[in-house]
Amino acid sequence: VLGEYNRSVMCFEQTAHQQPDFEAAQRRKHAVLCQEKLEAALEEQHENLQHTLAELKEYQRKHEHFQEQRKQLLDLQQMTEVQFELNIKYQQQRLKDGV
């Protein structure tokens, strides 16, 4: 049964054929088939989760890059505003001085 699902199913079918009244063989065969389906579903789910994790990591990388770019833009805007304010103060001072 340990991973050899086809062989297990064949053995249980053979047993059921040789001993038709042995219901445990049919139940075990169905249990093996269920286990095989469950394992396949779990493997698929694992692959899907790995894919989702990779997408999340890529999103996080892009988000961090966006945040860095945004910070640089805000810093540049702030520098421009400071320069603009300094220029206004300079022009006001020149007007006061009559230059």
Could you describe the 3D structure shown?
The chain is mainly α and 99 residues long. It has one domain (5-97). 90% of the residues lie in helices and 0% in strands. The chain is built from two helices and no strands. Helix 1 runs antiparallel to helix 2. The longest helix has 75 residues, at 23-97. The protein is rod-shaped. It starts with a helix and ends with a helix. 1% of the residues are buried. The mean pLDDT is 91.
Q: In short, what is this structure?
A:
This protein is an all-alpha fold and 99 residues long.
Key descriptive features of the protein:
99 residues; mainly alpha; 90% helix
Structural domain count: 1
Radius of gyration: 36 Å
Number of separate helices: 2
Topology, number of strands: 0
Proportion of residues in helical segments: over 70%
Distance between the termini: 98 Å
Mean pLDDT: 91
Give the SSE order as H and E letters: HH
Helix/strand structural class: mainly alpha
Biggest beta sheet summary: none
Range of strand content: under 5%
Low-confidence stretches: none
Shape: rod-shaped
Helix and strand layout, with pairings?
Layout: H1 5-18, H2 23-97
